[in-house]
Design a protein that fits this description.
Order of helices and strands: EEEHEEHEHHHHEHEHEEHHH
Radius of gyration: 18 Å
CATH superfamily of one domain: P-loop containing nucleotide triphosphate hydrolases
Number of strands: 10
Structural class: alpha/beta
CATH topology of one domain: Rossmann fold
Shape: globular
Helix content: 25-40%
CATH class of one domain: Alpha Beta
Bound molecules: adenosine-5'-diphosphate, magnesium ion
Oligomer: single chain
Distance between the termini: 39 Å
Number of helices: 11
Strand order of the largest sheet: 6-7-8-3-9-10
CATH architecture of one domain: 3-Layer(aba) Sandwich
Largest sheet: 6 strands, mixed
Length: 244
């Protein structure tokens, strides 16, 4: 469904993505793992057209999308849920969802109606009249995903959805992501939560210092302790500062 080939992305003179290759099949979830600063968010931003690579190709459903503006990429059916949770804090849950639909165009008749979103996200239904700012972290994350669904995506890019959330909320998030996959939406999941990745994804990529250093099936990855130790275990310094 989407193939990134030899992607090189820079911030100024800093060469952040150094020839990334990733391929995702229709309807599957693929995780992109790696330490802080490895280039995960930059990879998602590059797909979405928010940063422009200097070199490389991104083919989506057979079409080159590299170099297109973000709104054009969104219209082709790719939605991005950023780490920082893109919701309007002064608008209610319903208003946040309606505004996402308006952005898609009035004539649009999609499968993700308000009723359908509330059926999938019961926590949001309870909070429909609350302002974004009054929601818990987990509810804000769910609203951020629900807003992305209002754009009827075929490919959903999720950037660390479980970050900072309690385990029970992470489980709820996992259930919702599973339901999204059942709708035949393809998911690229950036996560630090390995349990969530192995529960959802069929393939895993590990990025380190802007290079893909590992790619394997879920079974292969789960059995491969060495690769997890080498690229995913926190360093002593990171462990010492965890929770700061
Ligand atoms: N806007 C930016 N300008 C300059 N450097 C950036 C910017 N965003 C990220 N970086 C750098 O690019 C590298 C990759 O960052 P990022 O993709 O956010 O990593 P990750 O999401 O894996 O933690 C890091 O070294 C980070 O400091
Ligand atoms: Mg990131």
């Amino acid at each position: 469904m989407i193939t990134l080939e030899n992607i090189h992305t820079y911030y100024g003179t800093s060469h952040v993505l150094q020839g990334i290759n990733i391929s995702i099949e229709q309807g599957e979830a693929v995780s992109l793992l790696g330490r802080n600063g490895a280039g995960k968010t930059t990879t998602l931003k590059t797909i979405m057209g928010l940063v422009r690579p200097k070199e490389g190709s991104i083919r989506y459903k057979g079409e080159e999308i590299c170099g297109l503006k973000p709104f054009r990429i969104a219209r082709k059916g790719i939605a991005y849920v950023p780490e920082e949770r893109a919701i309007f804090s002064y608008l209610t849950v319903v208003e946040n969802l309606e505004i996402a639909r308006v952005a898609k165009g009035k004539s649009h008749q999609g499968t993700w109606t308000l009723d359908r979103v509330f059926e999938k996200f019961p926590k949001l239904a309870e909070r429909r009249r609350h302002r974004g700012a009054k929601l818990s972290g987990g509810e804000q994350q769910m609203l951020s995903i629900a807003r992305a669904l209002m754009n009827e995506p075929q490919l959903l890019l999720l950037d660390e959805p479980s970050e900072g959330l309690a385990p029970i909320i992470v489980q709820e998030l996992q259930r919702i992501t599973q339901e999204i996959l059942r709708e035949n939406i393809t998911v690229l999941l950036v996560e630090q939560n390995l349990a969530m990745c192995t529960a959802l994804s069929t393939h895993h990529y590990i990025i380190d210092q802007g290079c893909i250093v590992y790619h394997g099936s879920n079974e292969e990855f789960m059995a491969n302790e060495e690769i997890k130790d080498r690229y995913l275990t926190l360093s002593a310094v990171e462990q010492a500062t965890e929770g700061d």
